[in-house]
């Protein structure tokens, strides 16, 4: 009979576990009203996601450190971008201070 499900066929993993650990895990599954197999699949998915997240964070850190190293060169594009951001921030801070001062003056008149 041909498969009618769109899901791919699942693989089976067999492993040994101590009886007391299996019983404790089965209690957790019962308490969460989930089959043991589903709880195991969740654990595997979480572990795979943790690994992906660690790899992503390591790459982000590597790129951040590389960009920071480039930004220390005053002639680099990264340094120019940081100078522009600093100038924009300074302008924003001046505008904010001016609008707060105007609001304070308006409140003081009342």
What does this protein look like?
Helices cover 75% and strands 0% of the residues. It contains three helices and no strands. The protein has helices at residues 19-31, 36-71, 77-109. α2 (36-71) crosses α3. The protein is elongated.
What is this entry, summarized?
The protein has 110 residues and is mainly α. It folds into two domains: 41 residues; 36 residues.
Give structural attributes.
about 110 residues, elongated, mainly alpha
Q: What sequence of helices (H) and strands (E) makes up the elements?
A: HHH
* Count of individual domains: 2
Q: What characterizes the major β-sheet?
A: none
Helical amount: over 70%
Please state the overall shape, judged from the principal axes of the Cα atoms.
Answer: elongated
Number of helices: 3
Structural class by secondary-structure content: mainly alpha
Average pLDDT: 92
Low-confidence stretches: none
Q: How are the secondary structure elements laid out?
A:
Blueprint: H1 19-31, H2 36-71, H3 77-109
Helix pairs in contact: 2-3
